[in-house]
Design goal:
The structure is a homodimer of 337-residue chains. With 337 residues, chain A is an alpha+beta fold. Chain A folds into two domains: 135 residues, 60s Ribosomal Protein L30, Chain: A, CATH 3.30.1330.10; 181 residues, PurM-like C-terminal domain (Phosphoribosyl-aminoimidazole Synthetase, Chain A, domain 2, Alpha-Beta Complex). In chain A, 37% of the residues lie in helices and 25% in strands. The longest helix of chain A has 18 residues.
Chain lengths: 337, 337
């Protein structure tokens, strides 16, 4: 490499971004040292993005930097935790200054906004791969898990689903979207907003929570499996953005509303939160949700009978398998995403 | 992928190895949750190994699994910390069962020996890359850093240096080593023993510490730079193994002892600890070192004059630059290791 690892770290990553008072040793030693708040548990998440697998190789480097952190902050939010520190293991084929500079800009834009300090990492030469790890804390015993949903619990989802999946499909099929909707949908794909404040606000309230990375149906499926329960979703309550409705509505590949909902339920990369709340806490919960700028909607209910059922607009029920959505999920999971 | 990410995790990584009582949530949720001992600081290290860059592609998968954890445990030891939890971000071109099974065997062999629990990770498809992160703890404020060495402090190194570098050179040049020495030297390259107990025993005693990954001269250089000091090393005190002496002595590429010492001082991958101790604590320190099975030797002294000087057998001094070793270090650093 023309530029050494040390030089790359010094130029683009060290002494940059927020400085937290709880960081004892940051970048530049054998390890990072941080101090957790008293009576807290440590939450750790890690996600790898591989060029050509998790993002198209032509993705702008600032978007890769932003998204590599965002997907981890989304996992942190799904634990009800407060993010604090990050490490970055960055493998690059060569030290391309323009690429590194833009990558770091995207990474720190989000890190600074969320108060996360980059405390360590490793820079290596090889095929472009980004592994970010975020450390967070929760008050002792308050991490929100995937298990613990009980029959009668209400199922909620933040924001809207399907936007990123629609944008990815347009990109892959080289379909040009109208500028206003296109900008919105591509921002949802490349610059997802981690629901950090929302996730933290839900601790002590949500019985289970997950972030939607593989699609609402698949990720809710993980909650159902871990909790040993089933659920019915009301399809007409699935929150769709105006841009999703406008673009998908005019897309002749989608014959009807069912096709559009299939994308919304099974496409990944939404990075919204899906969670359950006991019906007895509904009022307290919805008071809290009313302060969520991204919105939050009740979409169904947990039931004791296993499986995921979909209530259609006319009141009839489909099983996930009958609907064909399950097959979609399976395809996606087999890709090793 | 024929086998999904979920299947790979379930088969090879979940519910395996030691179970620590301080793990609240392990593999299988959005994040891992662990509980640190009271009044401790969290130490985090991360290292990436890329196939073809950090290890030859033909390296046995069990050795890749072992070493990917070992290099991180070595960093933990260099902070004086006690390792506890690990995450694994594994990128593989395809789900090769034999490879994954052997990789996991090597990884857990060392994890179990060190009492480290794998609590999370990410399995993705792409060029073979292994990023391991280890979390450890130290009593509050007791992490050992690279800065803090004072003139008069004695410089120590554990074990012996140069073994792994000699083995790598033999491998690269396809030189066949005598079986007994070869086995030893290749074990030093592929299965370094992290100096975990030694590192933890040095907290409260060592003023600085680093693990030797880039070569003794380069890594001691990091301590000198961070501490704003210089040092003189006694070349005849540099600890060499019997196998190193036997093999390097018969290797006609090395004309003299100087050439051999150059390998020992500049070759990487030793994963021994280099550290400094105030001269006033020498007796207490050497009592502790006498219990180190790997041995520990005083090799020099910290001085106020910047730079690294080498005292030869005849008492004359060379600067690192005069010796030509510095150039070696620089080459290595430019590879981005």
């Amino acid at each position: 490499m023309a530029m050494s690892e040390f030089e790359i770290i010094r130029r683009y990553f060290a002494d940059r971004g927020v400085r937290r008072a709880d960081v004892v040793v940051g970048i530049g030693d054998d390890g990072a040292v941080v101090r957790l708040p008293p009576d807290s548990d440590l939450v750790t998440v890690v996600d790898t993005l591989v060029a050509g697998v998790h993002f198209p190789v032509e993705t702008r480097p600032e978007d890769v930097g932003y998204k590599s952190l965002a997907v981890n902050l989304s996992d942190v939010a799904a634990m009800g935790a407060t993010p604090a520190w990050a490490t970055l293991a960055l493998t690059v084929p060569r030290p391309d200054e323009a690429w590194l500079s833009a990558f770091a800009r995207g990474f720190f834009e989000l890190a600074d906004r969320c108060g996360v300090q980059l405390v360590g990492g490793d820079t290596t030469r090889g095929p472009l791969t980004v592994t970010v790890q975020v450390q967070a804390w929760v008050p002792k015993g308050q991490a929100v898990r995937r298990s613990g949903a009980k029959p009668g619990d209400l199922i909620y989802v933040t924001g809207t689903v399907g936007d990123a999946g629609l944008a990815l499909r347009a990109w892959q099929q080289k379909i040009k979207l109208p500028a206003d909707h296109g900008d919105y949908l591509f921002a949802r794909l490349h610059r997802p907003t981690p629901r950090s404040a929302e996730g933290a606000a839900l601790r002590g309230l949500a019985t289970t929570m997950i972030d939607i990375s593989d699609g609402l149906a698949a990720d809710l499926g993980h909650i159902l499996e871990a909790s040993g329960v089933g659920a019915t979703l009301n399809l007409r309550e699935i929150p769709l953005s105006a841009s999703f409705v406008a673009v998908a509505g005019g897309w002749n590949e989608f014959h009807d509303e069912g096709d559009r909902l299939r994308v919304a339920l099974t496409a990944g990369d939404d990075y919204e939160l899906c969670f359950t709340v006991p019906a007895t806490l509904r009022k307290r919960a919805e008071d809290i949700f009313s302060r969520f700028a991204c919105g939050c909607r009740a979409i169904g209910v947990i039931e004791s009978a296993p499986g995921l059922r979909l209530r259609q607009g006319d009141g009839t029920l489909l099983s996930l398998r009958q609907s064909g959505y399950d097959h979609f999920c399976q395809d996606r999971r087999d890709e090793g995403q």
